[in-house]
Design a protein that fits this description.
The complex is a heterodimer of chains A (about 160) and B (about 180). With about 160 residues, chain A is mainly beta. Chain A contains one helix and seven strands, in the order E-E-E-E-E-E-E-H. Chain A has a four-stranded antiparallel sheet with strand order 4-2-6-7, with no helix packed on it. Chain A has a three-stranded antiparallel sheet with strand order 1-5-3, with no helix packed on it. Chain B is mainly beta and about 180 residues long. Classes of the chains: A mainly beta (about 160), B mainly beta (about 180). The interface between A and B is medium-sized, with 32 and 36 residues. Chain A: InterPro entries: C2_B9-type_dom.
């Protein structure tokens, strides 16, 4: 059986983190990063970013708008490990500390063209009630040490969300 | 060898009567299929919806198969469980769906069912929890012994699956 020589292909991602809807929270900023397999590498652009802090608009929409650019190009030889964009949203709590308001991840679309994705966000939750109270009081919510965990399939059963 | 990439997410579940849900998923293929990269099964986190009634998992699936034949086209199967505040788990539904066969992105909604049991078992499930479960997981995706079961409907599992096919035209398959 003849083996085909690996051919390199490029994936160019241009877009923006447009806006968010968080009915309960305000003054939020977001961070994005990409998670990809071993056969992938970024060749141009930035694979991480932190946005500005945005407040809800005063009108009916209550929109939180970032309009934060994403501009990155990957090269790869294998579709396995297709990049995922991981978003983490942070905001202040009652006491003024910066706490995480949501994590989410989605695969970069596979077909060329214009795509719009809405990503549901989730927050890790402590399992004991005492810990929930102390973390609310002290402003130290459960947080992932590395947000890239959100993009992985293994080890999720231990996390209540 | 023809290759198939299944890349996507188990987005979440809706329509279940319980709220804190998690899902155990797996993929079943025929004998001619070989998994080159990726994990064949997994379990999502437990999600409790704060807004609305849909539990979101966003659990990534990334599988790379090589195959010599079309028989045994991959099927994803799910077991949705609910977890209560004491940490006990109860079955909410079983379901399966075939992986699509045309390349591109697909939105899939997989309905689920759960075995009912006798009236005693149903009463016990309402008060104490628990309830009958399948002994052999392959009944979820095979039709062989289904006639023995009496089941009730559960909610729906939502998936977004992207499919990439490679070298199928060499084997005379148009896609």
């Amino acid at each position: 059986m003849a083996t085909a020589s690996p051919s390199v292909f490029l994936l160019m991602v241009n877009g923006q983190v447009e806006s968010a809807q968080f009915p309960e929270y305000d003054d939020l900023y977001c961070k994005y990063c990409f998670v990809y397999g071993q056969d992938w590498a970024p060749t141009a652009g930035l694979e991480e970013g932190i946005s500005q802090i945005t407040s809800k608009s005063q009108d009916v929409r209550q929109a939180l708008v970032w309009n934060f650019p994403i501009d990155v190009t990957f090269k790869s030889t294998n579709p396995y490990g297709w990049p995922q964009i991981v978003l983490s949203v942070y905001g202040p709590d009652v006491f003024g500390n910066d706490v995480v308001r949501g994590y989410g991840a989605v695969h970069v679309p596979f077909s060329p063209g214009r795509h719009k994705r809405t990503i549901p966000m989730f927050v890790p939750e402590s399992t004991s009630k005492l810990q929930k109270f102390t973390s609310w009081f002290m402003g130290r919510r459960p947080e992932y040490t590395d947000p890239k965990v959100v993009a992985q399939g293994e080890g999720r059963e231990a996390q209540p969300g | 060898m023809a290759e198939v990439h299944v890349i996507g997410q188990i987005m979440g579940a809706s329509g279940f009567s319980e709220s804190s849900l998690f899902c155990k998923w797996g993929i079943h293929t025929g004998a001619a299929w070989k998994l080159l990269s990726g994990v064949r099964e997994g379990q999502t986190q437990v999600d409790t919806p704060q807004i609305g009634d849909m539990a979101y998992w966003s659990h990534p699936i990334d599988l790379h198969f090589a195959t010599k034949g079309l028989q045994g086209w991959p099927r994803l199967h799910f077991q949705v469980w609910s977890q209560d505040s004491f940490g006990r788990c109860q079955l909410a539904g079983y379901g399966f769906c075939h992986v699509p066969s045309s390349p591109g992105t697909h939105q899939l909604a997989c309905p689920t069912w759960r075995p009912l049991g006798s009236w005693r078992e149903q009463l016990a499930r309402a008060f104490v929890g628990g309830g009958p479960q399948l002994l052999h997981g392959d009944t979820i995706y095979s039709g062989a012994d289904r006639y023995r079961l009496h089941t009730a409907a559960g909610g729906t599992v939502h998936l977004e699956i992207g499919l990439l096919l490679r070298n199928f035209d060499r084997y005379g398959v148009e896609c």
